[in-house]
Specification:
Bound molecules: S-adenosylmethionine, iron/sulfur cluster
Strand order of the largest sheet: 7-8-9-6-5-4-3-2-1-10-11-12
Mean pLDDT: 90
Order of helices and strands: EHEHEHEHHEHEHHEEEEEEHHH
Number of domains: 1
CATH superfamily: Aldolase class I
Shape: globular
Largest sheet: 12 strands, mixed
Number of strands: 12
Distance between the termini: 37 Å
Radius of gyration: 20 Å
Length: 341
Amino acid sequence: MRPPAGRPLPAAPLVDPFQRAITYLRISVTDRCDLRCVYCMSDDMTFLPKRDLLTLEELDRLCGVFIDRGVRKLRITGGEPLVRRDIMHLFRRLSRHLDSGALSELTLTTNGTQLARYADALASLGVKRINVSLDTLDPEKFRAITRRGDLSVVLDGLRAAREAGIKVKINAVALRGVNEDEIADMIAWAHGDGMDMTLIEVMPLGEIEGDRTDQFLPLSVARARLESRYTLTPLPDRTGGPARYVRVEETGGRLGFITPLTHNFCESCNRVRLTCTGQLYMCLGQEDAADLRAALRASPDDALVTEAVIEAISRKPKGHDFVIERARPAAVPRHMSVTGG
Ligand code: SAM
Ligand code: SF4
């Protein structure tokens, strides 16, 4: 169908060499965080100098380029996105694409510590669903996993989000010997409060103190245990990502399993990831990245950066290459907090 007279033809959408349409961009807006989860960061992380980060204006501009090329969903992540100064300015800017209909979803992955403060503003800017990472409901374990967090602050944040009308999904990393006995109860809690829940396997991303093979709990094991308490009915729901979903018949809620190490999900991959310094990673599990910051700063016109984006997508690999046994040192040297979850 032709667009109405006077309207330019839409730019060609981003399609990679394996005919996968790229419609989903994850943006890490900071590598910093107020927590230090044991599987994600070391205790004494060195963060990037602030001058290396894209400004909020640059992030907005870059998102605009992707949206012009057919990206329909943005997920803001980090580090902890809500600790970046003036982050609501970026949400305010991006929400205009929701108003215009160019974007179908603007969402967020957060540790929840700042939600009590920001939930109302996020809801008013069109954020309808968020992911909140929470691995335990035991305050002491929470402090141990995050090395400093206060569980009650996150629970207050969750309440604020729900009261603001935002739908919450809880993401929990399954950790051997840490929260494995709690998973079934957490599902009952989350579903009881109307929240979906997703379990994530530990991925070998970035150097941490200790050994991830100790933390690794295969979700096949977690799932088999859950099946002694719950009836899990597979759902056809697919997001283009690594999650597989089931309905928990006893609670009526939805449960996801993200198993990047034991499952291959690459054939339906619809996403790319932007770091806070403007590196575009075409695959979470591979090192190849395109430097969009240089293109962005080289010219105030978007032509150059658009060209860089198209060129980068033409390099998107067919699949990733994680193996937990090779995770010492980390199989992929950058931390999840750099590329975002
Ligand atoms: N700070 C925010 C949060 O915690 O939700 C957003 C960024 S965090 C890097 C995104 C997600 O990645 C979280 O759900 C976290 O549990 C997960 N994550 C971090 N490191 C991981 C790892 N090595 N393996 C698996 N998941 C990891
Ligand atoms: Fe921070 Fe999220 Fe990493 Fe935890 S998982 S240290 S909250 S970035």
